[in-house]
Write a structure and sequence with these properties.
The complex is a heterotrimer of chains A (about 100), B (about 325) and C (about 110).
Chain A (H helix, E strand, L loop, with lengths): L8 H22 L3 H23 L7 H34 L6
Helix pairs in contact in A: 1-2, 2-3
Chain B lengths: L5 H19 L3 H21 L3 H23 L12 H24 L1 H5 L12 H9 L8 H9 L1 H20 L19 H25 L7 H17 L11 H23 L12 H25 L2 H4 L2
Chain C lengths: L3 H33 L3 H26 L3 H40 L1
The chains are: A mainly alpha (about 100), B mainly alpha (about 325), C mainly alpha (about 110).
Chain lengths: ~100, ~325, ~110
């Protein structure tokens, strides 16, 4: 049997990213409140970014391509969150109006 | 397990607890607050993983702006539905996450193929091929900071599309404010008396944020920084001023606002078209002008990002109606 | 034979670490106060102390460990900014809470 190699910080952060992703995936599936589900989606994104950045850290100087992709991902995440929140508000207002069309 | 892993282990434990709280806290306001704290700890982890650009962007966008976005929008939503899941669901979530994570960790540490390929022993050079190519051409890219070079030169196409994504989100937002609807109740609610203190503080912070944003924009070519970090700081200043009423509604009907919103993407597209038609190829900068092009694209992009993000976060009916 | 610079250097090293540990002690007591105090105002009181004295000791320790002009100036600015924002946040939370309580009292009575 191979001896267990020394655990470095990179493996720990990889595992953390996976753990956060799984936890928020379960949250997305079982939570009822729409804002909590939006938080869960954001947390899934954060877990993915953790995996990407810890993969970038494997080389001595961190990989800039993955860093650039994560910066892009952050901005796309907030745009999507803003749009999703408006959709939630509009849907809630429509529910309250009883599904009648806009005046 | 060496003692230098202790700060990492502390951060990991902290992050797991906050993720749990952000998802399953009993009160929704607690969940949102813990989500903001989660963003701050993630920024610390980025700093620990030698990603200062990401730390700046995460603290400003991920923790700050997203938190304000959630809390501002949550005013409009009714109180949370109290259909609580059974306690067994929470324990099931924890068990599932723990078991799957331990399985992943075990696979990572003991898989023969991973060890034989030398992925984990730190002796083989893990520099990806793309990175080596990027290193070789960094001198020609026009900037010295590798992340900025990747964002605005080697992967400029991705950044252009990202600016377009911001525009799409904003136009989607505008669709949801129908032409004749009345202002929402939550948008014109009475501001509390305590806001006078916040107005004074916003007056102090806004110039600081503008100066820091400008500094980050300029330094982005040689040090961590860049258009996104600077744009998000400016957006934070605009959000603070707008929330305390010091800034009048940013009216969409003003042509200057619409021009500022599209300026970044438009300039980028113009550069791309010019290099595509008369130059060497789509988004292939001529070597002599690449530094100048990059900094001018960044300036316009910062303006667009700042205005678009602030409209996304606090855009109300007065701001966005036609 | 130790040069004068070495003696000063090791003094700064030990003093810096002592200040940082003292600052962390303040953070720990603030966490304790946050958990154990009965209402919002006392908890705010406990937490805001860390922004001022706790962080001040921490930055003093860090400045002793890296006495270049640039880092000392930056640490000073960071401390001032965090202190100011901590004080403002504490006041905002406390005043808002007071207003809410007064409104509730009006509604009840």
């Amino acid at each position: 049997m191979n001896t267990l190699p020394l655990v470095t910080a990179i493996e720990l952060y990889l595992t953390l990213g996976i753990a956060v992703f799984l936890l928020s995936l379960h949250g997305l599936m079982t939570l009822h409140d729409p804002i909590r589900r939006l938080i869960a989606v954001n947390l899934m994104g954060a877990g993915t970014f953790l995996v990407m950045v810890s993969l970038a850290r494997r080389s001595e100087v961190p990989d800039p391509v993955l860093h650039a992709l994560v910066v892009t991902g952050l901005v796309v995440a907030i745009s999507a969150t803003a749009f999703a929140l408006r959709l939630i508000i509009a849907a809630t207002k429509a529910d309250r109006r009883g599904g009648k069309p806009e005046p | 397990m060496s003692p230098e892993l202790l700060p990492d282990l502390t951060l990991i434990l902290l992050l797991l607890i906050m993720a749990w709280g952000a998802l399953y806290a009993p009160q929704r306001s607690d969940a949102m607050t813990l989500f903001i704290a989660f963003g701050v700890v993630v920024a610390l982890i980025w700093a620990r993983l030698d990603a200062p650009d990401l730390a700046l962007a995460e603290a400003a966008i991920g923790a700050g702006l997203t938190g304000v976005l959630l809390m501002h929008a949550a005013r409009a939503l009714p109180d949370e539905l109290h259909r609580r899941n059974r306690t067994a669901t929470y324990w099931g979530a924890l068990a599932f996450a723990v078991v799957a994570t331990l399985m992943f960790l075990a696979h990572l540490l003991t898989d023969d193929s991973l060890l034989n390929a030398g992925l984990l022993d730190g002796e083989t050079d893990m520099t990806p091929r793309l990175r080596s190519l990027a290193d070789a051409t960094m001198g020609d890219s026009g900037v010295e900071h590798p992340v900025t070079a990747v964002l605005l030169n080697f992967r400029a196409w991705d950044t252009l599309l990202e600016l377009l994504v911001l525009l799409f989100a904003l136009s989607g937002l505008r669709q949801l404010f129908p032409r004749e609807s009345a202002p929402d109740d939550h948008a014109t609610s009475r501001w509390p008396e305590s806001l006078a203190l916040m107005a004074a503080w916003a007056r102090v912070l806004a110039p600081l944020l503008v100066v820091t944003g400008g500094y980050l924009l300029w330094r982005g070519s040689s040090a961590p920084g860049g258009a996104f970090q600077a744009g998000s700081l400016l957006a934070a200043a605009a959000v603070m001023l707008r929330l305390t009423g010091l800034l009048p509604p940013l009216r969409w009907s003003s042509v200057w606002l619409r021009l500022a919103v599209v300026a970044g993407a438009l300039f980028f597209l113009t550069v791309a078209a010019i290099t595509g038609i008369w130059g060497e190829g789509w988004l292939t900068y001529p070597a002599a002008y690449s530094g100048l092009l990059i900094i001018s694209i960044e300036i316009f992009a910062t303006l667009s990002i700042a205005i678009t993000l602030s409209l996304l976060v606090i855009g109300e009916w007065e701001d966005l109606r036609s | 034979m130790m040069a004068a610079g070495d003696v000063l250097g090791s003094w700064a090293f030990y003093a810096g670490w002592a200040f940082m540990i003292a600052g962390c002690g303040f953070f720990a007591t603030a966490a304790l106060g946050l958990l154990r105090f009965p209402d919002l105002y006392s908890r705010l009181h406990a937490v805001t102390k860390t922004d001022t004295l706790g962080l001040g000791l921490l930055t003093l320790g860090l400045a002793l460990l890296d006495p270049s002009w640039r880092s000392c100036l930056m640490l000073l600015l960071i401390w001032l900014l965090v202190m100011a924002s901590g004080a403002v946040n504490c006041q905002l939370l406390a005043r808002y809470n007071l207003e809410q309580e007064e409104e509730d009292n009006h509604r009840v009575s």
